[in-house]
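hey m, so remember when u said the tokens were messed up on ur end? i reran from scratch. heres the input so u can diff it against urs
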Amino acid sequence: MLGSYTREKIENWVGDFCSSDAMGGFSGEVREYAADVLVAFLVAACEARGVEPEEIEEADCKQALLGALARRQVPAAGKAELPALCGSFLGQLEDAGRLGGGRLLGAYVRALKNAFADATSGKRKPVVRPGSRIGRNDPCPCGSGRKYKKCCMRE
């Protein structure tokens, strides 16, 4: 859990971004809830490993975007813009001298656009077996040397 100072710092950073010209490229729907979404994103990224906002890495951003942010209730019209919003925010943090490598993190978050769309769709991915199916006449995978049908198939 983040301390009150860290949370206040995050809210100040988000407030600076939301009042900047960088928000001009986003739709009106996104601007309405941008502050709440960005605070939730950065808090989730910090809580992923229990680090300060200046120390977040790609894995933290990925977990925050595909986890907490994908489950967040946001109007469907602007949900597709969230990776771009978070990416712009991270880039602006680097411009302000608050986050080293922010532009690179922003580009990484923008690249997760398709994974974010999959995570928000709610559809389950099919289970894919790593190998082919074991046939009745194939050698048994237990290593006995017998055919599968005579060994472990009936278990």
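this time it looks ok to me. Residues 58 and 105 are 6 Å apart (CA to CA). if urs says something different then somethings off w ur setup not the seq
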